[in-house]
Write a structure and sequence with these properties.
By secondary structure, the chain is of the alpha+beta class. It contains 15 helices and 14 strands. Helix 1 runs antiparallel to helix 12, helix 6 crosses helix 7 and helix 14 (377-393) packs across helix 15 (408-422). The chain is globular.
Length: 423
C-alpha cells in the first residue's frame, strides 16, 4: 500500500512543535559538553547556518549554535571554515553549509535564474567595472587571499552594498558568481581566495560530479532537505528555506509521497496537510503517540531557522515575530535586537538585549512574556538560568535588567539570580 493510500495520521499541534524542535536540535538541552565536531554536525542538521554581522549581542551564527550546543568556544566556527569542513555560499541568504553540500549549492546557483539582490548587484558591478574586477581577480591569483580592509577607502560612507568601497563590491560580486570563495575569517571579516584553492582544501573533498545534477534533481534535493531540516512543515513553507522559486505546492510533493521519501500527517487545527521526511519516521511515531517531550529553554537569534519565516512561526508557535533591527526605531514594538525565548516547546516571550563587552555587562533593555504565559516558579527559574548561562558564555556575566512585562517579572528574575549567586 502506498503512502498516498494510507489513512492520514493526526497529531496535536504541541507534538508538531516538538517534532520541529527535535529536527532542529532544540527539543532538549545538550546532555554533554560540546566538541568541535558538534559545530559541523549542527550545521549539517539544520542544512545551513545563516550569517549576519550584527553583534549587539553575539553575532547570529554563534547564537544559533549556542542554543543547540550550550557552552562552546566561538572560535570553533572559524576553525571549521579554515579547515574546509564548512564553506560559505548563498543559500537562504549568505550561509555556512557543510563541505559535503557545497557542490549542490554551487550547481544550483550555476543553473537557477536567481533574482537575489546579491546577483543583481554583482551584475551591475561587472557591467560598470569589468576591467577593474578582472585586475582584482588577477591580484588574488598571483598574490593570494585578500580582505576588503586591504584596500584603502578614499572617504567614509554609510553602510550597504551600494556604499561599499569599490574593491569590496567587486570581491562580493566575484563571491556571488563563484569565482572567489571565503577561505577563512579574521575578526569575522571575510578573507577571499580563488574558488579552486578553497575547493581543494574541503573535507570531505569537493565532489565535482554534483555540478552535473539537473535543475530538476537539485530542486528535488533541496525540497527534501528543507522538509528534513524543518521536521514537519506545510507545503507553502518549504520554498523559503533555500529560497526556491517558484513556490512548492502539494502537487509537486505527490511523487515524493508516492516514493515514500515524504510522509503526510494532519496537525489538529490546520487546514493544510503537513509533511515529514522519512528519516524522521521514528519521531513522527512518537509524536503520534504523544511522547515527544520538549524540555529545553534557550534564547534564540533573530536569524535562527526556527523563527526566520514569520508565517511559519505564527502557525507553529502562535508567535508574531518581526526582526526589528531593520525597522525604523519609532516603529519598533519590542526593540532593536530582540531574542525569542524558547521554553519547553513554546515561544513564551522575547527580550531586547545588548552586550557591553568591555564592561562585562549583559544589558536586558526590556523583557516581555507573551499574553497568557504563566510565570510559574519553574518557568522563571529556567528562563533566569538561560539568561545567566548565555551572559557568562558571552563574557558579560553581570546582568542589568530593564523594564519587564508583566512588571512582576523583574523582581522574580532578580530573586532567582540572587539565590543562584549566593548558593
Amino acid at each position: 500500500m502506498s503512502e498516498l493510500s494510507l489513512p492520514e495520521r493526526v497529531i496535536a499541534l504541541s507534538q508538531a512543535r516538538a517534532l520541529q524542535l527535535a529536527a532542529q536540535g532544540l527539543l532538549q538541552a545538550p546532555k554533554r559538553r560540546a566538541s568541535r565536531d558538534d559545530v559541523v554536525a549542527a550545521i549539517q542538521r539544520m542544512r545551513l547556518l545563516q550569517i549576519d554581522s550584527i553583534h549587539v549581542v553575539a553575532r547570529s551564527p554563534y547564537l544559533v549554535l549556542y542554543a543547540r550546543l550550550g557552552n562552546y568556544p566561538q572560535a570553533w566556527l572559524e576553525e571549521a571554515l579554515e579547515a574546509g569542513r564548512i564553506a560559505e555560499c548563498w543559500a537562504h541568504e549568505a550561509c555556512f553549509v557543510s563541505a559535503a553540500e557545497l557542490g549542490l549549492h554551487r550547481a544550483w546557483r550555476a543553473q537557477a535564474q536567481s533574482n537575489h539582490w546579491a546577483d543583481k548587484h554583482a551584475a551591475r558591478a561587472r557591467d560598470a567595472n569589468l576591467k577593474e574586477m578582472h585586475a582584482l581577480l588577477e591580484r588574488v591569483r598571483v598574490s593570494g587571499a585578500v580582505r576588503a580592509s586591504d584596500f584603502e577607502r578614499a572617504e567614509r560612507a554609510a553602510s550597504g552594498w551600494w556604499e561599499w568601497k569599490p574593491e569590496k563590491r567587486w570581491l562580493e560580486a566575484w563571491f556571488a558568481s563563484g569565482e572567489l570563495m571565503v577561505t577563512r575569517r579574521e575578526r569575522f571579516q571575510r578573507v577571499y581566495d580563488l574558488a579552486e584553492r578553497v575547493l581543494a582544501k574541503l573535507d570531505p573533498p569537493f565532489d565535482s560530479a554534483l555540478l552535473t545534477r539537473s535543475t530538476i534533481e537539485l530542486r528535488r534535493h533541496f525540497i527534501l532537505d528543507s522538509v528534513r531540516a524543518l521536521g514537519i512543515t506545510q507545503a507553502r513553507w518549504i520554498a523559503d528555506y533555500f529560497r526556491l522559486k517558484p513556490a512548492v505546492d502539494e502537487r509537486e510533493l505527490a511523487p515524493l509521497l508516492a516514493s515514500g521519501e515524504l510522509l503526510r500527517v494532519q496537525v489538529a487545527g490546520w487546514d493544510s496537510a503537513a509533511y515529514v521526511h522519512r528519516d524522521h519516521a521514528a519521531w513522527l511515531d512518537s509524536a503520534c503517540a504523544g511522547r515527544l517531550r520538549a524540555t529545553h529553554t534557550a534564547l534564540l537569534s533573530p536569524f535562527d531557522p526556527l523563527v526566520w519565516d514569520r508565517a511559519r512561526v505564527r502557525a507553529m508557535f502562535d508567535f508574531d515575530y518581526t526582526i526589528e533591527c531593520y525597522v525604523p526605531a519609532a516603529k519598533r514594538r519590542y526593540g532593536y535586537y530582540v531574542l525569542p525565548i524558547l521554553h519547553r516547546g513554546r515561544l513564551i516571550g522575547r527580550l531586547d538585549a545588548k552586550a557591553h563587552r568591555a564592561e562585562g555587562l549583559f544589558e536586558i533593555k526590556a523583557l516581555f512574556f507573551e499574553e497568557g504565559v504563566e510565570s510559574s516558579e519553574r518557568t522563571l527559574k529556567e528562563v533566569a538560568e538561560a539568561i545567566v548561562s548565555i551572559a557568562a558564555w558571552h563574557g558579560t556575566p553581570d546582568i542589568r535588567l530593564g523594564r519587564c512585562r508583566p512588571a512582576a517579572l523583574a523582581a522574580a528574575l532578580r530573586a532567582h539570580w540572587r539565590h543562584k549567586a549566593s548558593a
